[in-house]
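Thread: "does anyone have the structure for this chain?"

Original post by V.I.:
We have the sequence but no experimental structure in hand. Need at least a predicted one for the grant figures.
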Amino acid sequence: MIVRPPPSLSLRLVSSASHSRAFKPASQTRHFILPTSRQRFTATRTLAHPPSKLFTLISDINSYSSFVPFCLSSTVTSVSPPPESYPTTADLRVGWGGFDETFTSRVKCEKFTGKEGGLVEADATQNGIFEVLKATWVINNHDNKGSSSETRRDGDGESKVDLEIEYKFANPLYAVMSEAVMPTVAGKIIEAFEGRVEKVLGKK
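Reply from O.Q.:
Generated one for you, tokens below.
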């Protein structure tokens, strides 16, 4: 003997199953892409002072704590032989918010041969927070009048100053947490340097 359910019960069962399928929550997967490559940010200014004077200011790393944003202290720990006595290593203490860390940098100061200008590079790559941390200043003559260094008087001329910040965090999560701050650092530093130039060399 075959027992069949009442038509009303069959309808309720089908309706219940359809309702269950219609409202079954869909599974969702979220993907987070963490930065893993080196990041570079640059800033450029044209300043109404000769490259030699700007090179002297930029290579004066002991003064960085007086104008560089987030730099709490700056100390040159070794210099090259005289007569140049350029800094070769330096400790820079950096802090903002709850972050406070001292970075030891290998410093290279180099005047360009045969033309005005130079390069100042601070490499603090060897630390536990960054796999790469490097700041490079390049100063070049930018004289619109086209006069040579021999015919220009001391204090004349313009300079083109380029700053590049290159970094890569050891932990990609740090990159996520600081992504709103790091892209603005180069611009803030070179803007602060403009203020330093005006204070030391005067406004033109």
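V.I.: this helps a lot. Helices lie at 7-22, 51-58, 172-177, 182-201.
O.Q.: and Residues 123 and 134 are 4 Å apart (CA to CA).
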